[in-house]
Design brief:
Layout (H helix, E strand, L loop, with lengths): L1 E9 L2 H11 L4 E9 L4 H6 L2 E4 L5 H10 L6 E4 L2 H5 L2 H5 L1
Parallel strand pairs: 1-2, 1-4, 2-3
Length: 92
């Protein structure tokens, strides 16, 4: 089974639904790395690692992603604030 690492920037239910779908994949061994606005028990249970970043500061998300850069294959950002603040350009 192929391994895939996913960074999920989470604010709420949208990310929970994505994480649930990813972790149920029968085709991939999925490792989830979650940068959460607040501690979410579901995300904490499903994630390989979870970081709580209350303001979803792009630089703090970057630090978390850099710790796991060898394991993360791609990222998904749920909330708009990090997107507006340029997370894509900073992480790339």
């Amino acid at each position: 089974m192929e391994k895939v690492g996913i960074l999920v920037v989470s604010y709420g239910a949208r990310a929970v639904a994505m994480i649930d779908a990813f972790t149920r994949s029968p085709n991939y061994n999925v490792k989830i790395y979650v940068a959460d606005k607040q501690r979410n028990p579901f995300n904490a249970e499903k994630a390989t690692e979870q970081a709580v970043i209350p303001d979803l500061n792009v630089n703090d998300i970057l630090k978390f992603a850099e710790k796991h850069k060898e394991e993360i294959d791609f990222g998904i950002v749920g909330p708009e604030k990090p997107i507006i603040n340029g997370i894509r350009d900073i992480i790339e």
